[in-house]
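Dear Dr. K.,

Following up on our conversation at the group meeting, I've run the structure prediction for DUF6894 domain-containing protein from Bradyrhizobium elkanii. I'm pasting the input sequence below exactly as I used it, so you can double-check it against your construct before we proceed with anything downstream. Let me know if the numbering doesn't match what you have in your notebook.
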Amino acid sequence: MVGEIISEWWATSNRNGGRDHSGTVGDIERNQHFFDIRDDGHLYPDEEGLDLNDLRDAKMEAAHTMADIARDAGRSGDDHDVTIEVRTGKGLLFQAAFVFHGLKQ
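The predicted structure tokens came back this morning:
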């Protein structure tokens, strides 16, 4: 169920806020940040990335992305465990996660 929510969100998201994203995984630019989404064993890699100024901008982008996913996931009423893994060409910078677990009614 989570995979369906993430897949749908990923396909319709404008998560880059209209910002230009240039470069590719094979030709990574210095400030290229990638926002991979992981849920219950499924990985949705960000193959385009965003050209951001610094770590603060990457944290803000991760927070906005997480809020969008959490809003959609909360509507489903199911349990969710989602992580955004933010990386550059040098490796993992940080992870942001949310967990929805509750009693079934």
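Two things stood out to me. The longest strand covers residues 91-100. DSSP finds two helices and five strands in the chain.

Best regards,
J.T.
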